[in-house]
């Protein structure tokens, strides 16, 4: 059976990035992302903005870059995949689950004036890409072979 698991989101960080490291010293960053959706209210016949909130995780060099250049409220464009996780709550014993976005790459969005991270260059933005998942340990696979990403030279970032 064929399958396809890709997600593209653009929104604002709901909190500062939370950087941690795995036992093998791999950087892992978690962010919250708010993405607005426009829906028409049938009672008032008016358009309304509704926020959707997503938990997102990045690994390796992508995690380092997100942690370095983003803070709460900043816009970001991400591409990744959905990953479902389930566990048993230690206190209540209830089964819990959630879906999170595993960030494969991202782009800076906006300009300096609006609090964004300013793009640049012919692609209109900078991007970074984490290593592809493999059948290794950890939530994102075995990244010990090193990340596969477009290198970002800090001197090329226009801020």
What's the layout of helices and strands?
Blueprint: E1 7-13, E2 18-21, E3 27-41, E4 46-59, H1 60-69, E5 75-88, E6 95-108, E7 127-129
Short précis:
The protein is mainly beta. Helix content is 6%, strand content 45%.
Description:
- The chain is 6% helix and 45% strand.
- The chain has 1 helix and 7 strands.
- A hairpin with a 6-residue loop joins strand 5 (75-88) and strand 6.
- Mean pLDDT is 80; it is low at 115-149.
Notable characteristics:
mainly beta, 159 residues, 1 helix
Cα gyration radius (Å): 17 Å
How many distinct helices? 1
What is the H/E order? EEEEHEEE
Overall average residue pLDDT: 80
Instruction: State the low-pLDDT regions, or none.
Output: 115-149
Indicate the proportion of strand residues: 35-45%
The structural class is mainly beta
Please give the share of residues in helix: under 10%
Described by strand count, sense and barrel closure, the largest sheet is: 5 strands, mixed, barrel
Shape: globular
Widest beta sheet: strand line-up: 1-3-4-6-5
Number of strands: 7
The end-to-end span amounts to 47 Å
């Amino acid at each position: 059976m064929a399958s396809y698991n890709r997600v593209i989101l653009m929104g604002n960080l709901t909190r500062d990035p939370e950087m941690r490291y795995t036992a093998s010293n791999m950087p892992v960053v978690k962010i919250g992302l708010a993405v607005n959706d426009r829906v028409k209210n049938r009672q008032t016949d008016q358009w309304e903005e509704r926020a959707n909130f997503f938990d997102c995780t990045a690994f390796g060099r992508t995690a380092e870059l997100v942690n370095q250049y983003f803070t709460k409220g900043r816009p970001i464009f991400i591409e990744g995949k959905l990953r479902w996780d389930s566990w048993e709550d230690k206190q209540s014993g209830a089964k819990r689950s959630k879906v999170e976005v595993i960030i494969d790459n991202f782009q800076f969005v906006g300009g300096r004036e609006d609090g964004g991270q300013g793009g640049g260059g012919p692609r209109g933005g900078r991007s970074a890409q984490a290593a592809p998942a493999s059948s290794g340990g950890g939530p994102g696979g075995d990244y010990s072979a090193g990340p596969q990403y477009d290198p970002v030279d800090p001197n090329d970032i226009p801020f």
